[in-house]
Structures are given as structure tokens and as C-alpha cells.
Amino acid sequence: MKIASVTELKKEFNHLSREDLVELLNKLIKFNKENKEFVHYLLLESDFEENYIEKIKEEIVEEFKGLDSRSWKTMKKPIQRILRLLKKYIKFSINPKTEIELLLFFCEKLRFYKTAINRNPVIYNIYSRQINSINKALEKLHEDIQFDYSEEIEIAMEVLN
After folding, report:
1. What is the DSSP letter of 74?
2. Spatial CA neighbour of 64 closest among 101, 34, 108
3. DSSP character for 3?
4. pLDDT tens by residue, 29-48
5. Residue 128 CA to chain centroid, in angstroms?
6. Cα-based angle 42, 48, 51 (whole degrees, multiple of 5)
7. DSSP 8-state code for residue 143
8. Would you list the DSSP string of 103-129?
9. How many whole angstroms separate alpha carbon 63 and alpha carbon 75?
10. Are the beta carbons of 93 and 46 closer than 8 angstroms?
11. Is the dihedral angle over the CA atoms 148, 152, 155, 157 positive or is it negative?
12. Are 109 and 64 in contact (CB under 8 A)?
């Protein structure tokens, strides 16, 4: 079965009545948890981006509290799970500033486990990829805002050296 393109779907949306669109959205949010979370973000969180960032940071702090730090070998999967959760939230918000804030916060929390970063190549690669993602998102911002984040990024990069 061939899936319609986004343009075709947009044209079809224009032909639907308001009631049909509401019904379609109700079906969409019942179908998938991620769709429900995305609609929740669009309706309730997108106007208050700072509050959204703070809620996510609180959730990340809780996730890191549950991290078993006795062995750096057992830390890989929980860190990957936290990062997957974080990437999902970043995907909801298209704002590059939000992406930078959240990834810097993730790196800041992961920096407390410097020995795990240095001893486990998977955790090291996760950390370095997030630094690269931060730098890519930083290119999308104005130079003044880039300068505001430069010190934090330098601190985060020190772990890799």
C-alpha cells in the first residue's frame, strides 16, 4: 500500500469539515502514545517553552537518580533509555534553543560519571555525539546566542579530552 505524501494529506485536510478534523484527531491520539504526547505538547506546552524545558529537566534528574552507578558496565542501557526519552521530547519542539538546553543538561548530568565516560567506549560515544548535536543545533542560532552557550559547551567538551 502506498502512503500519501504530506502535501496530499494537507490538501485532504482542507476539504474536511471542523467536526471531521476533530474526529480524526481523536482517532490519532488514541492510536499511539507518542501521538498523544505530541498533541499534548502542541496544545498545552508549546506556548510555554521554558516551563516545558524545566519539566523535562526534572524528569531527567529523576532518571539519573535511578541510575546504577556501581559499575560503569551496567550504566550503558539506562543512559541510552534516558537519551531516547530526551530525543523524543526534543523532536516535539523544533526550537534549536530547546535542543541545546536539554542536551547540555544531559551532558552536565552525565559528566558526574566521568570514569564511566572514559572507560566505556559506548558511553563515551554517546557523550561525544551529543556534543556534536549541540554544535549542529548551535549553527542554527544567531551569533549572540551562540556566544552565550560557548562557555557551557567548552566545559562539556573538557570531559572528552
Report:
1. G
2. 108
3. P
4. 888 889 889 888 988 888 89
5. 16
6. 115
7. H
8. HHHHHHHHHTTHHHHHH-HHHHHHHHH
9. 12
10. yes
11. negative
12. yes
> Which region, left, alpha or beta, applies to residue 2 given φ > 0 means left and ψ of -120 to 50 means alpha?
beta
Identify residue 151 by its one-letter amino acid code. Answer: E
**For residue 2, which amino acid is it?**
K
pLDDT digit string (tens) for 111-127?
Answer: 888 878 888 889 999 99
DSSP 16: S
> Residue 113 is placed in which grid cell?
560519571
Residue 117 and residue 124 in contact, taking contact as beta carbons nearer than 8 Å: yes
Residue 156 pLDDT more than 80? yes
Buried b (16+ CB within 10 A) or exposed e, 19-30: eeeeeeeeeeee
Pair 132, 84: CB distance under 8 Å: no
Banded pLDDT at 62 (limits 50, 70, 90):
very high
